[in-house]
Amino acid sequence: MKNLLISAVLLCTLSAHAQSVLTRSKGNSFNPSIGINALMLYKNGSEDIDEDGFSLQELELQFTSDVDAYFRAEARIALHQEESSEGGHSHEFNVDPEEVFVETISIPKFTLKAGKFYANFGKYNMVHTHALPFIYKGKVQETMFGHEGLSEVGLGASVLAPLSWFSEFSFQILQPTNEDLFVESHHSISYVLKSKNLWDLSDSLTIEWGLSGLYFSHQENIKEETQLYGSDLTLKWKPTQSSNHSSFMWSTEFIHKERKGSISQKDQGLTSFIRYQLASKWYAQAQYEHLDLEDSQNVNAYTGLLAFIPTEFSSVRVQFDSIHEKDAKAQKRISLQLNTSIGAHPAHVY
Amino acid sequence: MRIFLLFIIFCLPAYSAKKIKIITTTTNLADLAKQIGGNQIEVESLCKGVQDPHYLEAKPSYTFKLSKADLLISIGAGLEQGWLPLVVRGSRNPKIREGQSARLVASDAVELLEKHDTHISRSQGDVHPEGNPHFMLSPQKSIEVAKKIKSKISEIAPSQKSYFEKRLQTYSSRLMKGISRWEKMIKKGQRVISYHKTLTYFYHDFHVQNVNVLEPKPGIPPAASHILKVISQVKEQGVKKIIVENYFDDAVARKIKRSVPDVSIEVVPTAVQGQKGINDLFSLYDYLAQKIGEEKSKS
């Protein structure tokens, strides 16, 4: 309840601010672009029956604007149902500032970024819930980064390499707080490095390859160390003619995580999916995930999805998951999601 | 001293041959830039002639191309809103951001049709509040954009100002001759049905009456009730042609033809390189005039 009050006050303050700007400026040209994404969900599964039924999966508020001639700012605030202590969803909502950052717009060649943001690791950590390829974050992503992904406060720099193809390098330093990766320490930082490359094989076909690394080390009584390596490969086909009727995508990501110190852990996982466009508004998707966990518990997850996407502002998706853990009965789950977007809707990353 | 002079002689052609690198969002803008910039520019369009510029994806390769651009020419009026801001940001080329020195938004140069001054919402489909963005299909308006391009590239290469001015005059006079030829080919008040409001400006220039569009709302595919309404309009108003832009499916037009066999269907390109043989704006306007105006030559 308290969180809802905070968010209401926050919205009122922003609205009042926007109104005051309106009176000072011509029209609303200096107001930030505001977008709202709402994800409504119905779920029915063989496990976690407390989570079954209808729920508001997430409400995401996005604010974007240029700050001045040197910076632009972005804020994405998510509201989602709290996990109950007895399992399942409670009636309370959490307010989570997923990303609040500024980045430079006036420096040629480089972009510098500061604030709280998703770490530029792999292909899907930076993707927000409403833009995820499937209804839920993949098992591999959840195991490596936790339910909310890796979003930390820090600084980042990125540059386009002077090569004959698109090649972007980024380097970020982050204050470590994510319990799935770090031992929290105010005097240590983690480093994230990523190289993203894309080649146009033809006007309709692209191939993207990324290589990521994360390193964290902290010495107190014992040395705590985390290393993460990842590689991703995505092939996209969209014909130049009749491009609204057919397309194909295949994407694969591999992540290896190793923790040493008070927690010793060595996990690795692979996610691979295909998306095929059946008609102008219909898509079919299939995903396979494999996790190799430290405690020799292997997990295999199979997912199928059918999406109806009438416009870029709404979609209805139905998904079936079958998750197989060693020596355990397979978990089955069927989910139906309505994804709507109002207001400003910034372009999604390719 | 002799070596120094030789060095200067060798370097001079390389220096003088440095062309202005222009990226445009559409092939129509690219051809117009080429008409004015001639051999002083290198130009490339992000959208291919057969693609619908509303629905491009923000490809990183566009980002890469924009990072090296001396000038970006976009249509504006919301046409590229779904993809261009992201690639401009990714290019890390601050001078091509909107409002900066190396950015030209062509819609700023023309008076747009179909502006929405009243309240609009997305329930009305893919509407552009600023006005219809397909103004490059108006030969008249292309001259206004050409003047703006001439001014902008003259700022970038002031030494070539008279060269660009001369090319602008050549383009304008060649186009004026074309306009009087196309006016003769198209019957004033001719009634057509189109798929989308892409050809609004061409129709406006040549007084063609667009009775209706096959999309019930912009970006929304035709529904059965709307098709029935169009069929009755075709019959009642004696419409002889259905014009379908070649990046749309002509299946609905064929369905109407089954009900009204007299009507003919013309699938037309709306951009340079949109079809084999459409290599510049003149051949595009010429082709459109031929396909839309055939009725006059027959009558």
Provide tags for this entry.
heterodimer, A: 350 residues, mainly beta, Porin, 16-stranded antiparallel β-barrel, 2 helices, 16 strands, B: 299 residues, Rossmann fold, 4-stranded parallel β-sheet, 8 strands
Structure description:
The complex is a heterodimer of chains A (350) and B (299). Chain A is mainly β. Chain A has a domain at 39-53 and 106-111 and 123-343: Porin (Beta Barrel), CATH 2.40.160. Chain A has helices at residues 2-24, 139-145, and strands spanning 33-45, 53-66, 71-83, 89-104, 110-118, 151-160, 166-174, 190-200, 205-219, 223-237, 248-260, 265-279, 282-292, 298-311, 314-325, 331-343. A 16-stranded antiparallel barrel of chain A has the order 1-2-3-4-5-6-7-8-9-10-11-12-13-14-15-16. In chain A, a hairpin with a 4-residue loop joins strand 2 (53-66) and strand 3. Chain A is globular, with a radius of gyration of 21 Å. Chain B has 299 residues and is an alpha/beta fold. Chain B folds into two domains: 2-179, Rossmann fold, CATH 3.40.50; 186-298, Nitrogenase molybdenum iron protein domain (Rossmann fold, 3-Layer(aba) Sandwich). In chain B, the strands form two sheets. Chain B has a four-stranded parallel beta sheet, covered by helices on one side. A four-stranded parallel beta sheet of chain B has the order 6-5-7-8, with helices on both faces. In chain B, helix 4 (84-91) links the parallel strand 3 (71-74) and strand 4. The relative contact order of chain B is 0.12. Chain A binds chain B through residues 72, 105-111, 159-160, 165-166, 168, 196, 198-200, 203, 206, 208, 238, 240-245, 280, 311-313, 342, 346-350, and chain B through 48, 50-52, 55, 57-61, 63-64, 67, 82-83, 85-86, 89-95, 97, 122, 126, 219, 221, 247, 249.
